[in-house]
């Protein structure tokens, strides 16, 4: 669980050392799905996530420095939040500069094709990819457990990362437990 609330500026840069301080950081070995053929390159070096005081889920992807192309430019990002028996999907598309082209929520009615509706998600990719999405759009709430599945699509290939277990912290200061070592 993240150790602090964060308030990142969604611009594709780490503007301040403390901007993503206190988030959960997962490196490539924790994210990659084992396959019979190992990838020659890894597009993601690390994934960070946390939560803001204004009830947003915050995600950061750091590119592998050896990837050799502009970080995440022209990428599509598909986030699936599994909360209880329901899955909420967010589809994000970045243009060739790394600016947000579109962000859609995909909710499916019974036995119908998913119907996209606009999302209030914000995203940008320059040196890193940063994204925020309001809790209510993806079914999150304080105290809930959820699973997060991230799929990246680039002009060259698609990549699905290992599912991440999330626990949304409570926003009530009385519910926080603190310790000093």
Topology at a glance:
Blueprint: E1 24-27, H1 28-31, E2 44-51, E3 56-63, E4 76-83, E5 86-94, E6 100-107, E7 115-118, E8 122-125, E9 129-134, E10 145-153, E11 158-160, E12 164-167
Antiparallel strand pairs: 1-2, 2-3, 3-9, 4-5, 4-10, 5-6, 6-7, 8-9, 10-11, 10-12
Describe this structure as you would to a colleague:
- The protein has about 180 residues and is mainly beta.
- The chain has one domain (about 25-170): Sandwich (Immunoglobulin-like).
- It has 1 helix and 12 strands.
- Strands 4, 5, 6, 7, 10, 11 and 12 form a 7-stranded antiparallel β-sheet that branches.
- A hairpin with a 4-residue loop joins strand 10 and strand 11 (about 160).
- The two termini are about 20 Å apart.
Explain briefly what this protein structure is.
This protein has 181 residues and is an all-beta fold. It has one helix at residues 28-31; strands spanning 24-27, 44-51, 56-63, 76-83, 86-94, 100-107, 115-118, 122-125, 129-134, 145-153, 158-160, 164-167.
